[in-house]
Structure formats: C-alpha cells, structure tokens
Amino acid sequence: MGDAVERISAALNAGESNPDLYSAAIHKSFVLSVDQAHAIHPNYASKHEKGHAPKMNDGMVIKRNSNQ
Predict the structure, then answer these.
(1) What is the pTM of this model?
(2) Do residues 52 and 24 lie in contact, with contact meaning Cβ atoms separated by under 8 Å?
C-alpha cells in the first residue's frame, strides 16, 4: 500500500518523488475495510436474534463473525 501511495504522490508531483508530499499524504490518510452485510432472508429469519436484525438502507452493521 505504501508503494502505491508513493507512486501516486510522485505522479501528482509531475513525476518527481517528493518525500514531504508522500509524508503528508500518509499522515492525512486513513484506510477502511468495507464489507457488506445482508438483510434477513425470509427463509432464514430464525438465524437472526429478534431486535438485532440488520435492516436494508438503515445504517451501519457491525459483524462479529466474518463468515456471516
């Protein structure tokens, strides 16, 4: 990831590597790991706890099990 950011910062600086630009890009950046969660399938509603079911288009979902 660092190499990619370094190449991008060089490309944005007319092809010249600039350690200050690269350092600023790293310090002002953050990375998100974004995944999807599924709403309740009508055939498997019993797999979800009542009151803790994901709802479509109703905000963020925090998953405890990556296999879900």
Answers:
(1) 0.36
(2) no
Residue whose pair of structure tokens reads 């999807």 in the numeric block? 36
- Would you call 10 helix, strand, or coil by DSSP? helix
CA nearest 27: which of 55, 2, 56?
2
Q: How many helices (H) and strands (E) does the chain have?
A: 2, 0
b (16+ CB within 10 A) / e for 12-30: eeeeeeeeebbeeeeeeee
Q: What is the pLDDT of residues 2-33, one digit of tens each?
A: 788 788 878 887 877 778 877 887 888 887 77
